[in-house]
Amino acid sequence: MESSVIAAAKALSLLSRLAAKVRWPGLFDGVDSATEDWIIDQMHTVRPVVETGYENLLLVRLLLESRTPSIRKSSVSEGLTVEVILEKWSKLKPIIMEEWGENRDALIDLFGKVRDEWLEQDFAGWIGANRIYPGVSDALKFASSRVYIVTTKQGRFADALLRELAGVTIPPDRIYGLGTGPKVEVLKQLQKKSEHQGLTLHFVEDRLATLKNVIKEPELDQWNLYLGNWGYNTQQEREEAAAIPRIHVLELSDFSNKLK
User: Fold this and answer.
1) Measured at the alpha carbon of residue 45, what is the angle toward residues 235 and 120, in degrees to the nearest 5?
2) CB 247, CB 222: distance < 8 Å
3) Which residue ranges of the chain lie beneath pLDDT 70?
4) What molecular function terms (GO) are annotated for this protein (predicted)?
């Protein structure tokens, strides 16, 4: 399962703003608290488009540019709305990456470094800015099946959230974090394990695009696919998922019960 169906992270929005300030030191010069609060609020709305953490930095800057004409460096920021971001992020991202001269790997490293520093300097504050979804802790503790975490987060952060918020320790070899490859490839690895032969396999995810990628792989036909409707997805995506036979749209209460 994806770790974002376990815990919601206000910390992510706060971290994204902090990392953006590190990457672009002058970006927030003269920006008032109301604008910063507005960006945090909008980040919760646009979060469903994010596949990998570094994209949050891009979103923070894009939102700020849309709000502040004097700092605009992107051709797409004028008149931009969150609705457009939700609909066209895959097209917007390469444009702003090029126009801002950014490098994906460098942003990933920066995002991880800033998060590491936050955890080291204020671990309690970072944990406190996250929250676990109701019922998930007990579901994980008493799960009758073997649970794997397949996430775009770096593994150590997923592990910290599980231990501190859910009170659960997942063995390191069952956490597939950033750098372990695309989720479809991880699912292929998992289903090939000898101990999984003949078992029913379930994959719970909150990104519809990821589930669509799984469906494209005939090798993964034996997986039961679920879209967690409490995670980072939109109503439109949930309606689209409901119309796809392979995908079950899952309620949080049903997820917790099924996992037990």
Assistant:
1) 130
2) no
3) 8-9, 260
4) SNARE binding
